[in-house]
Amino acid sequence: MQAAASRWRQPSILPGFGLALGVTLTALCLIVLIPLAGLVLKAASIGPAEFIAIARSERTVAALRLSFGAAFLAALVNAIFGMLIAWVLVRYRFPGRRLVDAAVDLPFAMPTAVAGIALAAVYAPNGWVGSLLDPLGVKVAYTPLGVAVALVFIGLPFVVRTVQPVLEEIEPEVEEAAALLGAERLRTVFTVVLPAVFPALITGFVLAFARAVGEYGSVIFIAGNVPMVSEIAPLLIVIRLEQFDYAGAAVVGVLMLLASFLLILLLNLLHGGLRRRYGHV
Amino acid sequence: MSEAALTPSPARPARRAGGARVRGESRLVQAILIAIALVFLLLVLGLPLASVFVEAFRKGWDVYLEGLSDPDALAAVRLTLLVAAIAVPVNVVFGLAAAWCIAKYEFRGKTLLTSLIDLPFSVSPVISGLVYVLLFGAQGWFGPWLKANGVEIIFALPGIVLATIFVTFPFVAREVLPLMQSHGTADEEAALTLGASGWRTFWTITLPNVKWGVLYGVLLCNARAMGEFGAVSVVSGRIRGLTTTMPLHVEILYNEYNTVAAFAVASLLALLALVTLVLKTLLEWRYADHLSANGKH
Fold this sequence. Notes:
Domain ABC transmembrane type-1 (chain B): 77-284
Order of helices and strands of chain B: HHHHHHHHHHHHHHH
Subcellular location (chain B): Cell inner membrane
Helix content of chain A: over 70%
Subunit structure (chain B): The complex is composed of two ATP-binding proteins (CysA), two transmembrane proteins (CysT and CysW) and a solute-binding protein (CysP).
Number of strands of chain B: 0
Oligomer: heterodimer
Order of helices and strands of chain A: HHHHHHHHHHHHHH
CATH superfamily of the domain at 66-232 in chain A: MetI-like
Strand content of chain B: under 5%
Keywords (chain B): Cell inner membrane, Cell membrane, Membrane, Sulfate transport, Transmembrane, Transmembrane helix, Transport
CATH class of the largest domain in chain B: Mainly Alpha
Number of domains of chain B: 2
Number of helices of chain B: 15
Structural class of chain A: mainly alpha
Membrane topology (chain B): Multi-pass membrane protein
Number of helices of chain A: 14
Distance between the termini of chain B: 38 Å
């Protein structure tokens, strides 16, 4: 590849660049860019005063706060348990390890609506887990806590799949050196291993957070959807659309878009470069 | 480190007093950590998956099959297959074109183009549907014109297909792109020098090199296309038997408290997810080296 580097900058002899780029740009513009521009235009066309009025209305603020708050909580839970799961999968050998490894991707493959009704069934007061928590006075389904549970489900693979490859690549020599120098195991883990995987852990956290903020299907079945209490921002968009309040929907949509762009920007700043594998499937 | 560890002999215990264990935790700590991880996975993934099938078969096979053979359910299955049959090939064509021009050429704005292709992943599914409603809905930019000309996009098949293509947009491109990049351009240049046409070079050199990546992308793209809920629910209008895909039909049945039928249809989708997962895992094990350009999935 290095020998070819200088040639790469010259005009290529491979044909089809115009066609391929044409197809790519046409599809990108028609499917993604023009529709997104339409959303921004719509929100801009209502004027700054009304935009701010909608953005600062109690219901919008409550919905955004719940979406971002629950997503943050869920991403935090995922960062802790995702790290643990990655660790266990990489470092230990136990029966069924490969099965568990494959199962981690379930939230990527499972349709969100199916996940939603299944989580609602399990965590409802008469469900398998809900019935155990109910006597303790803990209600999960149909509360904001339920929102967080659904977001933990869909965010988990992001953390595991970001941390896992980094953990696999840590040289055993580094840990051995630490141990030989007299560090206890726990100290080795916290001063040698964790700093090495920390950037990946942060990336996984941000990816899980970004995905969770916009999640809709798995949440609405378990959330209860009470306005101001357990109504997430994407649901508010849907409700506004059903009321044919396009401006209201567009404002919430633009606020969410803005937030996810800021998150991507933050991620890129954190890593000081382009993340090619941004946002796992 | 003692000599014992450097020249291990089977006669001597590997672990000596004073803790010569260099890497790894004691068996007890391992067991506890594994147990915590497994319980967490059981609570978050295992039980919900199991509950889909338990709820679906709660009243036995007959009721289960009854839920599935309902005409509206069958219509939903047909619509889902139709949408995937349109969206997935579109994605393959687009994904190959995008990967070809990004992987095989150097040009300005390449980084920007790559980020723009990934853009749909960072957009909420609901917004993916919303943008089309704002364009083509009754009060959207083109709404009045479409109505005057009798073209239905929102609350009809075209809207559902568009929203599905939007959310699955990056799937094939992102699997194929790193693979094409890792192969470089030497093979294609050799073929062209030997007199092959551009298309022939693509079909006989480039495509076979990335075929497993394409298949991998198709697999994930198809699962998302068939299971998409948020984007499709915004543009579908939920006209029973006409514009309800399987996930939307699940929602309708669930909201009608027809739980068994809802879980019966959901069990088909869960099965699709499991099959996708198994195929994906097999591809990763069997063709790891053909997919490895972008590392672990």
